[in-house]
Every structure is written in C-alpha cells, then in structure tokens.
Amino acid sequence: MTTLAGGTTASDSAKDGLTRDALTVLQPGFLGTTAPDWLLRRLGEGLASVGLFGRNIASPEQLSSLTAQLRSERDDVLVAIDEEGGDVTRLEARTGSSFPGNHALGAVDDVELTRAVAHELGRRLAACGVNLNWAPSADVNSNPSNPVIGVRSFGAEPELVARHTAAYVTGLQSAGVAACTKHFPGHGDTAVDSHHALPRIDAESTVLEHRELLPFRAAIAAGSRAVMSAHILVPTLDPDHPATLSLRILTDLLRGQLAYDGLIVTDGMEMQAIAATYGIERGSVLAIAAGADAICVGGGLADDETVRRLRDALVGAVRSGDLPEDRLAEAAERVRGLARWTASGAAAASRAETDAQPGSASAGGVTRVDVGLVAARRALTVTEADDFTPLTEPPYVALLTPVANIAVGDETPWGVAAELARLLPGTETAGFAGEDAGGVVLKAAGTRRIVVVVRDEHRHPWMADALDTLLAARPDTVVVEMGVPQAPPRGALHIATHGAARVCGHAAAEVIAGA
Fold this sequence. Notes:
The protein has 515 residues and is α/β, with parallel strands linked by helices. It contains 18 helices and 16 strands. The strands form four sheets. The chain has a six-stranded parallel β-sheet with strand order 2-3-4-5-6-7, with helices on both faces. It has a six-stranded mixed β-sheet with strand order 11-16-15-14-12-13, with helices on one face. Helix 15 links the parallel strand 12 and strand 13. It is globular and about 75 Å long. The N and C termini lie far apart (79 Å). The model is unreliable at 1-13 and 357-364 (pLDDT under 50).
C-alpha cells in the first residue's frame, strides 16, 4: 500500500475521493431561511449543490444573505431553484409572480418577448446569488387532462414549444443562470401527476420524435446547460424503467442520438413515482448508473439524514460493483463543470449589466422593469358581450378553487381580487369548491356584480356546473379563466389569462375595471 505525504495512504485518498464524488452529485434542500450547520459541514466535505424552495425565501435581501452564507463555505456551490415564473414561483411564493408563465408567453408567440422575460427573471435570480434554474418546461401539453403540466407548458404545438424553449434558454443563460430544460423525454401527454404515481405515455416512436423530442432538440441547440429527467414510463423507449432510471433514454437517446453533453439532473427523487416503487436510495443508484449526473432531492426530504443515506447508498453501490466508479466520477465532474460555467457566465453577465444604462430596453423593446406586466397584458384573450361595460362598483369575486398540484403549491395567492380591490376599493372575495358551489356563490354575492375565477374549468365538472348555475341566474357575470382555456368562453366578459401569476391577475383586473 502506497503511503502519501502526511501519512495518508492511497486507499484512504481513493476512499475520500469516492465519498466526495457521492456528495457532489446530490442536490438536497433544507428547512429555514438560513443554512443549517449540517449543510455547511456537508459543503465542506464535498457537497456541490443546494436546492432552494419557497420555504427558504422571505425576501430578495434575505436570499442574497443566504446564498452568501453558502458561498462562504464553498465559493463554487451551485444554488438551484424551481423558478418557472407564472404559477410555479419560489422567489415570490407569498405574493405571486411578477412574470407570466410559459403558457401566457406561448399565447403571445413573440420569441423576443419570451427571451426578454427569461433574461429579466435570470437577472433577478443572479442578483440574489442563484445560478441554476430548474426551468424551462419543454413539455408539449398535448393532453388537456394533464394535471401537473398545463399552463407550465408553452402550448400544445411542438413547433411553438420548441421555439419558445430555445428563446427561454437563451434569455436565462444570457443573465449568467444555467437553464435546466425539463422534463425529458416529455411530460405533456400524461393524465397522472408523477408526484403521486408513475405516469405512462403510450405513443409510437414517430409521434415521440416529432412531438416530445422536438423542444428538447431546440433546447440542446440553444445550449441548455442542464436537462431534467421525468419520472414517466415510455414503453416505446424503455418498457421496463421510468426515464430517470433508463439507460436507453438517458444514455442511448439523450447522450447518443441527441448528442447532449451537459448536466442531466433528476426530478425530485422523493416523488412517489420513484420513492414508492424503487425507494430513493436504490432509485438514486439506478439513476446515476443510467446516465444521470445529479440527484435532486429535498422538496419533501430536507435533512442531513437523507444526504447521509444517499451518499452511503452511492458509495456502497460502487464497492459492491452495482455502480461503476468511473460513472460516478464522470457525473461528479459534470457537476463541477457546470459550477465553473456559472462562475464564468455570471461574471460575463455582471459586466454586461454594468455596461447597460439604467432603464435600457431589453429584448422585444420592453424595459426590463415592466416586461412581465407587458407580457401578461399581451397574453390576454378577451371575449365581450355587445352590451358589456367595465365595472365601476366593487364586485364580489368568487374563486372556484381546485386542489393545487404539488409543483405549484397552495401557498401562492392567485386570482384577480387583490388587483380589483386596488382599482375598485371594497371588492370582496371568497373561495368555493364542490357541488352546489354556484348556489352558494349566488347567496354570498347578494346583489353585487359577480366575477368568477376558474382554473382549468374543462378538467373539473363541478366548476362547469357552478358556472352554469351562475350564468343562468346572473348573465352579467364576468368569468376569468386562469388555467388552460379549453372550454368555450361565456359570460358578459370572458378573460383567458393563460396562467395565474400575479401579473396575469393584474392585467385581467385592468380590463374588468376599464383601467
């Protein structure tokens, strides 16, 4: 056995390297708005990435302090976040996003505007010390019943999704923040939420090639620094393994056929599609063996025990021969490579910001301060009755509230009431759900004008029934659809916002009140 300087043996050095590599490929979360001691200790031991969620963020200033705290322990740490804008926001989880989501941008179909929105979002992330964004969603929302993608997609047309995915990647990365295009090979044609179970896509290879893969090809051509795998079963590609655990999908297809050489990140391993079928330890080993480079975990599991278990599972798999050591080393090096890119990319973006004049126009001819609201206004689809006049008295706003999917969360406010109250003081609101919601709303509203806000009416029969009841009794009702507008427009005024971001509600309120 060779003895190195300081009395360290070669086997000790290899052991330390293996343990560091196992930590390097993990992307855990944590609880609280400051970094816990265990997380700082793990960064010193080799952990290279940290995932942030709404629970970790109170304000931009606090977030900047948090990321500075992380970098005081490791200056090249990847700080990742799930900030899609629109319905899925972590930066503004308590207020709603200042940016419309993908579906609104797809409805406008102006790639320069999409690029401008993504750049401004990236600029704000970078200013807070975040350098990896688990976005954009490149999923083609071809299944109207999809419970988890919906307005997170640019739309149902592959070509539209492809061109806006590329624009988003370009805009985000021009701000020095790495894009992570998701959910490969495409989560749009599912009717099951992978947070709860394993979805399945039964489509022929020709359909997958033109529909699901087209946006990912565009993202790769645009230089997306990371791609996130989906916990979905696609039997045409691999009948036995979900994409996250599939050598055929991650290595043969993504690395081989699509010639992608960036970082492959898994979707959250605590999601039931993996956790309930393989378990997170075995699932993580299988994912790295299949070609993934980074294990995302921490949406629901956010403690040192989880990190230790996953580290030990990876190290044990190498020692048992279940995971080739060079595969783990390759994965860890890709993580470090992305960290180096973010350092250089952030520096370049910072120089560009310094050179720019305050208030200068961003891509699309819109100043960066108001690009989100301008995009939300342009995304509206408005259908008016001939005799409709804007409201001048405070209405009663009925929020027909579906169960939120986990990706969106239920802590982020949505609707139009807050913005209407600003324009029409005295506006009241309440949430409703279930059978006879329409009758309950009528009783609660009294003689006040009703504004009813829905989210994916086409997926919720009780919402459609409530609207039937309301419109039969009060044909002057205003309807705002803040999900995917599949149902025919109806009401004295019907507004499709193509998303439930705060700015979407702001834009709709302006129309309702004639502001």
